């Protein structure tokens, strides 16, 4: 009796373990296209950081603890322009403010994670991480911590590693900058936008967010166009939503 | 310690605050209003659109072509072919001197 019970537990543990490993690998696999898109930017960040007066250690440290590409680019760009340090910090914060919305939206997917899992997982919350997590949840697959961390660690190591390589070999890279890779980022983000086109109100949200962000860009300037444009799209979706209470939780 | 070090440290703390902030605020509520739910569903498209939208302010015909091609490919295929199609379009046009 006890024996078979043990066997049962053992088996269950074994299956859980296999599922975790499978999820972890699936997460790494989800990271592959993102890694290809991110590689040039990690190298570019490292190279430009050193060019703007960062030590290699500082470039790597920034990637390792800020871990938010766009804001890091803004940060090193402002360092090159000799702007007051508090203003640089504030700009980094403004560029990253969108994560507040991501983290609020993600809560529905990670409700059953433990506290430390949430603390680690949210540290790794980036644009592609959020987009892929939302898509996975939408497909009805469970967003396990193992899947999330598989993708997250793969992206994290790529970002920190390429920043380091870029910082070390930056001089060479910048001297041969015949290839401008800046255009890759908008294409990459366009792909993310397109991947959500199955959602209700997708087209009006994209139209309103796009229009408001352009107006804000012209009137107030970056990086505010991101927060203001995004809030306009989210507000539209909330305003148009069917106000009747949800019939059941599905 | 240099200014750079302190800027990085403060930037990291504030960035982490944005990453946990939304969840900490929202998890205080037991039920999520359908309007909030609808708003949260719109978050990915809304935020990601604003990151690209400014390219039309000072349009570079080559980059716009790359985006249009990528957008069309995205209607049918996954993100990797889309990304490659856009990149090849831009590199190709640049190569031929546009």
Structure description:
- The complex is a heterodimer of chains A (250) and B (98).
- By secondary structure, chain A is mainly alpha-helical.
- Chain A folds into two domains: 21-180, no CATH class; 197-241, no CATH class.
- Chain A contains twelve helices and no strands.
- Chain A has helices at 2-51, 56-65, 69-80, 85-96, 98-106, 115-123, 127-138, 145-168, 170-175, 184-194, 202-219, 224-240.
- The model of chain A is unreliable at 246-250 (pLDDT under 50).
- With 98 residues, chain B is mainly alpha-helical.
- Helices cover 74% and strands 0% of the residues of chain B.
- Chain B is built from five helices and no strands.
- Chain B has helices at residues 3-26, 34-41, 43-52, 61-74, 79-95.
- The radius of gyration of chain B is 20 Å and the shape is flat.
- The termini of chain B are far apart.
- Chains A and B meet through helix 1, helix 2, helix 3, helix 4 and helix 5 of A and helix 1, helix 2, helix 3, helix 4 and helix 5 of B.
Q: What low-confidence regions of chain A span 5 or more consecutive residues with pLDDT below 50?
A: 246-250
Number-wise, the strands of chain B total: 0
Strand elements of chain A, count: 0
Biggest sheet details of chain A: none
- Fraction of residues of chain A in helices? over 70%
Gap from first CA to last CA of chain B: 47 Å
Helix percentage range of chain B: over 70%
Largest sheet of chain B: none
Continuous helix count of chain A? 12
Q: Alpha-carbon distance between the termini of chain A? A: 39 Å
Class derived from helix and strand content of chain A = mainly alpha
Instruction: Please state the oligomeric state of the protein chains shown.
Output: heterodimer
* Structure classification of chain B: mainly alpha
Give the averaged pLDDT of chain B, no decimals: 88
Jot down its keywords.
heterodimer, A: 250 residues, mainly alpha, 2 domains, 12 helices, 76% helix, disordered C terminus, B: 98 residues
């Amino acid at each position: 009796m006890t024996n078979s019970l043990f066997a049962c537990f053992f088996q269950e543990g074994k299956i859980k373990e296999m599922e975790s490993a499978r999820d972890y690998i699936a997460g790494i696999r989800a990271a592959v296209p993102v890694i290809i898109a991110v590689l040039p930017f990690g190298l570019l960040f490292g190279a430009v950081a050193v060019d703007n007066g960062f030590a290699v250690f500082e470039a790597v440290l920034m990637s390792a603890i800020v871990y938010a590409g766009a804001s890091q680019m803004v940060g090193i760009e402002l360092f090159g322009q000799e702007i007051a340090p508090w203003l640089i910090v504030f700009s980094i914060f403004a560029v990253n403010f969108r994560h507040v919305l991501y983290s609020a939206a993600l809560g529905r997917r990670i409700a059953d994670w433990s506290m430390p899992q949430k603390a680690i997982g949210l540290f790794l919350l980036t644009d592609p991480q959020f987009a892929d997590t939302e898509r996975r949840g939408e497909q009805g697959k469970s967003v396990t911590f193992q899947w999330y961390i598989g993708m997250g660690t793969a992206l994290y190591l790529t970002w920190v590693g390429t920043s380091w390589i870029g910082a070390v070999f930056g001089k060479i890279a910048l001297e041969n900058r015949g290839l401008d890779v800046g255009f890759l980022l908008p294409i990459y983000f366009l792909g993310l936008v397109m991947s959500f086109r199955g959602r209700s109100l997708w087209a009006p949200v994209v139209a309103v967010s796009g229009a408001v962000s352009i107006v804000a860009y012209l009137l107030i300037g970056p990086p505010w166009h991101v927060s203001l444009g995004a809030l306009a799209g989210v507000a539209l979706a909330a305003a148009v939503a069917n106000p009747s209470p949800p019939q059941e939780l599905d | 310690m240099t200014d750079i070090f302190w800027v990085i440290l403060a930037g990291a703390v504030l960035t982490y605050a944005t990453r946990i902030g939304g969840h900490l605020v929202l998890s205080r509520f037991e039920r999520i209003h359908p309007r909030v739910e609808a708003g949260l569903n719109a978050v990915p498209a809304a935020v990601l659109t604003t990151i690209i939208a400014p390219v039309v302010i000072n349009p570079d015909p080559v980059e716009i072509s790359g985006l249009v091609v990528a957008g069309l490919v995205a209607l049918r295929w996954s993100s990797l072919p889309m990304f490659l199609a856009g990149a090849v379009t831009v590199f190709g046009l640049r190569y031929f001197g546009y």
